[in-house]
Each structure stands twice: as C-alpha cells, then as structure tokens.
Amino acid sequence: MAAASENQDRVTEKWLEFAQEGKGNMEEMKKLREKDPTFDIDCVDGTGMTALMHASFRGHVPLCEYLIQSGAGVNADTHDSKYTTLMFGALSGNEDVVNMLLDAGANTDAVNSVNRTAAEMAAFIGQESRPKLKVELLKSFHKFISSYNIHPIFLVKQLQQNAELLEDSKQLCRVLDMLVSEKMGAHNTHESLALKLHYISCILKNTAEAKSKDKKGTLDAFLKRLATGRESDGFLDQVESLVRSTLRSYPKAESKLFRMLIAKLSSVEVGSYPYAILALTDAINGERMRSNEDPVCEVCAAREPKKCTACQKAYYCSVQCQKLHRPTHKKYCKSNKA
C-alpha cells in the first residue's frame, strides 16, 4: 500500500510538472493518462493549483483544451487564496483560454480571498478581454436590457420573440457580467444598473438553459411553469423562486442598495408583500416608476392590459398571457365575478 501511494505521489508530481513546462508537455501528460486512466487529473500542488489552473495561467490553449476534454473541472475551488481557473485564465490575458473556460461552464460570479471576480482581476492588471457583440444583435439587445418591466415572464416573452439573443446567449452574458463589474468599479459606481444587469444576465442564462433542455426546443413549457400559480392561492411561486435565486448569486454583496433589498425581503415570508419582483423593480427603477393604481397584466406585469370578460377583475396584456394563466385563473374566475 505504501509503495502504491508513493508511486501515485510521483505520478501526481510529474503530472503537475509537465503542466508547468514551457507550453505544457501535453504528450507526456497523455502518456501518464494512458498508463492509468483512473488517475485524478484534478490533483493539486502545494498551493492547491490543478493542472488546468497552471495551463490557464500560462495561456496554453491546446493543453487547456485537452484537459477540459479529458474532464478536468473548470470550477475547482482548491486554491489557497480561492483563485478559480477562470481567474488564472483572466490573469493570463489570453482571450481564447478565457472563452474556452466560459464555454465549459466556468462560474463568473466566484470571488477570491480578496473578494474579486475573474473580470475584476483581469481589469486590475489591465488585460481585460472585452467580449464583442455581433452588430445585428445591438438593437434587440439594447431594447432587451433597457426595459423598465423586468418581470421574468415579460423578459422570457421578449426572448421568445427575439430568438437571436438566445442563440448568442453565452456571449451576451459575458458582456453583461463584464458590465456589472464596471458599474461597481471604484470610479464609476452605479449600483442599480449593476444589479439590473446581473439580474438580466441570470434571466438570459436560465431561459437559454430551459430552451436547450426542452424536447421541442421552445420556451412554451418554461413560460407555463412560471405562470402556474400556487395551488392554495394562485401566487406565482416559481417567479418568486427565480427572482430570489438571481439575488442569491449577486457577486457584489458590498452594494448598499443590494443590502437594503435583502433586508427588505428577509423580513417577509415568501408569498407575502412585498413580492421579490416588486422589491427588485423598486430597487432598480425607483418606487416612483411604479403606480399601484394602474392595472398591469396578471402574468407579466405589462401595462395597459384588458379585463377578463368573465370576472371583470383579472387583467391580461395578451391572449398568450391569458392562456398561460388559465389553469390558475379558472379556479377562482367565476367566484370573483362582480
């Protein structure tokens, strides 16, 4: 057993040495893997760095590609100072490495021991790699992120109508995540905009993921799930859950606006007023932008809706929203009739 352990230690040592050589001794690393397919490719050195972290830090594109294809973890959190693989890639200044890690699912919200994200680390050393948007997406993307209505269902409907945004969602999310860091910078702080951009990025990611998992490749099931109310009272608990999940992943916990919002929501039970989407909307747009007197769509909060012809109390902005809400609304529609 002792001999086997010593041999494993030697293999680990060689593996990590090869990862740090010049441009990475990929051929020798492949030989080690061939000799022992069960070898842990995410083994770490004395500082907690994996081979992929070393390769990313040195900007070794082919080696990074090989390690990722071999199953190396892109979100390992073993480093002593909590630096992630993406942070090392950002520090390398190699755009190809960064994009490769992002495509593999690297977490952009993780922070290190000094509370910095990968984007902030890249900006700190002056090697920020700004993602480029396709010209044909600029108009629809700007309209999408400029909307005052940030209700999840409204935004998903917009994405349904602008499928090109979902097709390029990864790149758009990179832009949004980069802007979040910029808007919370020391010399250019805009807390409400940073919070909004993070929220929109999360909605975009969730929507793209839902579409990719849907057997028909549509958003119909996702919208239906969001618009289905709680059995007991019709409350849209899936919307509440989605909004709260976006807040939990916000990487700028130092934001005063964010702290006020969390304090406001933590004092009420889920399903009680103020709902998460209302509190978030007020935090981003200001309470003056929302009138409690003007009716809005029951489903997506769009303005200028029309009354349900049966009960004359519920409002819907479109036939689509009325159909989405029908399973929930029909339970109390007739009983609400004036």
From TrEMBL:
<protein>
    <submittedName>
        <fullName>ANKMY2</fullName>
    </submittedName>
</protein>
<dbReference type="InterPro" id="IPR002893">
    <property type="entry name" value="Znf_MYND"/>
</dbReference>
<dbReference type="InterPro" id="IPR002110">
    <property type="entry name" value="Ankyrin_rpt"/>
</dbReference>
<dbReference type="Pfam" id="PF12796">
    <property type="entry name" value="Ank_2"/>
</dbReference>
<keyword id="KW-0966">Cell projection</keyword>
<keyword id="KW-0969">Cilium</keyword>
<dbReference type="InterPro" id="IPR052452">
    <property type="entry name" value="Ankyrin-MYND_dom_contain_2"/>
</dbReference>
<dbReference type="InterPro" id="IPR036770">
    <property type="entry name" value="Ankyrin_rpt-contain_sf"/>
</dbReference>
<dbReference type="GO" id="GO:0005929">
    <property type="term" value="C:cilium"/>
</dbReference>
<dbReference type="GO" id="GO:0008270">
    <property type="term" value="F:zinc ion binding"/>
</dbReference>
<keyword id="KW-0863">Zinc-finger</keyword>
<keyword id="KW-0862">Zinc</keyword>
<dbReference type="Pfam" id="PF01753">
    <property type="entry name" value="zf-MYND"/>
</dbReference>
<keyword id="KW-0479">Metal-binding</keyword>
<feature type="repeat" description="ANK">
    <location>
        <begin position="47"/>
        <end position="79"/>
    </location>
</feature>
<feature type="repeat" description="ANK">
    <location>
        <begin position="81"/>
        <end position="113"/>
    </location>
</feature>
<keyword id="KW-0040">ANK repeat</keyword>
<keyword id="KW-0677">Repeat</keyword>
<feature type="domain" description="MYND-type">
    <location>
        <begin position="297"/>
        <end position="333"/>
    </location>
</feature>
